[in-house]
Amino acid sequence: MNKIVAGAIEAIKDIRDGSTIMLGGFGLCGIPENCISALVEKGVKDLTCISNNAGVDDFGIGLMLQKRQVKKMISSYVGENAEFERQLLSGELEVELIPQGTLATRCMATGYGMPAIFTPAGIGTEVAAGKEIRNFNGKEYLLEYAFEVDFAIVKAWKGDADGNLVFRATARNFNPLMAMAGKITIAEVEELVPAGELDPNIIHTPGIYVHRIFQGKNYLKRIEQKTVIRRN
Amino acid sequence: MALTKEQIAQRIAKELKDGFYVNLGIGIPTLVANYIPQGIKVVLQSENGLLGMGPFPYEGEEDPDLINAGKQTITTIPGSAFFDSAMSFGMIRAGKVDLTVLGAMEVNENGDIANWKIPGKMVKGMGGAMDLVASAKNIIVAMMHTNPKGESKLLSKCSLPLTGVGCVKKIVTDLAVLDVTPQGFKLLETAPGISIEEIIQKTSGKLIVEGKIPEIQF
Q1: Which of A173, A174, A224 to probe by mutation at the B interface, max B CB count within 10 Å?
Q2: Which chain B residue has the Cα nearest residue A97?
Q3: A-B interface: how many C-beta pairs under 8 angstroms?
Q4: Is A83:A63 a contact under the CB 8 Å cutoff?
Q5: Is the whole-model pTM more than 0.90?
Q6: B15 assigned to active site
Q7: Which of B15, B47, B106, B109 is labelled catalytic?
Q8: Whole-number Å distance between alpha carbons of B162 and A196
Q9: What is the ipTM of this complex?
Q10: Residues 6 or more apart whose Cβ sits within 8 Å of residue A81
Q11: pLDDT tens-place string over residues A146-181
Q12: End-to-end alpha-carbon separation of chain B, Å?
């Protein structure tokens, strides 16, 4: 078993044009910065990206949008990225906006081997168009499907040589779900340790889900809305 | 005088009970956190994976891994817990969250809400709003009574794309507190100094005004 790769370039080596990739993170929190840089550098294009947000204009997935690498985005909110909104409104970029809980649960269903889930989110709205509706105990639910996805790229706080992952604070968000869902899951971590150093009790994502792991570097961890109070 | 945003939040905070788990949307709803009544514990849920959202951090102590749904830096409180996005929306969908407060562009007399899209102009996405309105046990809308053009936001029929149907229970605007009932909007309280006539005139949907209507107390 050897899951450790040298870095992002090696980790993404077989991601080709037209791939469908999941990218973890909420806003800029918990995003796989190294892999995103490597994807931008590699120039792979016609990608379908499943990620809650699209970064900001000059960071995160925004960098891939600037280089027109993304054919289709599947997200729940893209408000922080003016370039995204522009490409969406002009029709240059195909976008599927889906409720955040639906996005999370479809990732979970994919990883849990369930072909579909039922959720009430979107009943009575345009999200329900063309979808099967079923009534359970007097309430209507939409049938939503698991994702077809090639690669999942996640960011964790700590990981070990066996691919076990631990996340930190709200940088966790979609990462554990996407880690389970990927056919190939790539994990970049802030601290890579030998197998045995992580207490099995605190592992969030067991290594069975992770195919490649590497020690990440130079994390900028940009803050979108620094909001502080001043001491008196 | 019409209420300020802070005062709308302050009035909504009076609905909080000890032990409530609460989700506050972006905009005016976030201000409700500043007015939690003394002596009760309310746990704020942040949909990106935190129960027990605390105040903003002091300058210099911000943590980029610790943000709220509006992408602002925050802190935790004693008893906080982190979890992933599926669990976050799971606890919403399964009815564990006692109260949801969110903003709106339009609400109709049926309790339908539109707060996520203006076609051709603002298509940022729905985020967690559709999940919240589809499953929350109790939904309070915090909004201005009219839009910047002076048009009513309390309608018979929403013109904007819907976020959810038949879900809003209570509305607090800068002019009034209203319930959504099967018969339409019901006026409960008026902002101090605001006449009932003004509220009737600025409410486009069916409005029930019965009995003496008290002023909002803080």
Answers
A1: A173
A2: B125
A3: 179
A4: no
A5: yes
A6: no
A7: B47
A8: 51
A9: 0.96
A10: A53, A54, A55, A56, A57, A61, A62, A65
A11: 999 999 999 999 999 999 999 999 999 999 999 999
A12: 14
